[in-house]
Amino acid sequence: MGLLTGKTALITGAARGIGKAIAIRFAEEGANIAFTDLVIDEHGEATRKEVEAKGVKCMAYAGNAANFEETQALVEQIHKDFGSIDILVNNAGITKDGLLIRMTEAQWDAVLTVNLKSAFNFSHAVAPIMMRQRKGSIINMASVVGVHGNAGQCNYAASKAGMIALAKSIAQELGSRGVRANAIAPGFIETAMTEQLPEDVRKDWIVRIPLRRGGQPDDIANTAIYLASDLSSYVSGQVIQVDGGMNM
Asked: Ketoreductase domain: which residues (predicted)?
């Protein structure tokens, strides 16, 4: 028996990267997986097969997480397909970096909409389901920049700070119904996105990390397992920074 056996997890933006790592690790612990992405292309289909190979049920759904009505319909379909939704991981996100004085309104709106509004949309849709079940775990994928800010990322930092506040507020509102909400704040994680950074930028990040290395997607996934499982049954409204000690 795995830590998540018998549970259904809904993970947004999970075709690749950290979301994919969470889907695979959850499956290894016995959870059935529903995951979403804007489109389910060859990457999404490959992820679905990889998750399914762990011996669990896995279905992939295409949808715009930033669209309220579309999300409501999508969650209703997932609930119908799986019978329950026990875990929600709000992982969908984008970056459009730039200094404040050069940032366009479009850059600001896009990041806040995809990152923060999508978390609201999915949380709003799953809340009644979890309240009826009188159990559930909502995990918002935030960032250390949502805790401390970061030059050149006003929009991204604001969206991630919002996801932290959203998790804390949900924890207060739904706790009496057995629903927990927490946030994970990753630091410098080795993904396809960070691989594109210039080498001098990467070296600057590493020297600021006491463990002297970047994190791996599985480092985030393992923390998500803790928050999704009964191991954290008395943990709610918290922010766990997974950053190698970068921000203490």
From this structure: 7-191
State the Cα–Cα distance between residues 219 and 111, nearest whole angstrom: 25
Reference 40, options 60, 56, 11, 59; nearest CA is: 60
Architecture of domain 8-237: 3-Layer(aba) Sandwich (3.40)
Q: Which among 61, 156, 226, 234 is annotated as catalytic?
A: 156
What residues does 205 pair with on adjacent strands? none
Residues linked to residue 32 through DSSP beta bridges, in sequence order = 8
Do the annotations mark residue 160 as ligand-binding? Answer: yes
Alpha-carbon distance of 71 to 148, in angstroms, equals 30
Q: Is residue 118 marked as binding?
A: no
Active-site annotation holds for 156: yes
pLDDT (tens digit, 9 = 90+) per residue, 76-132? 999 999 999 999 999 999 989 999 999 999 999 999 999 999 999 999 999 999 999
Query: So where are the chain's domains?
Result: 8-237
**Nearest 5°: phi and psi at 138?**
-110, 125
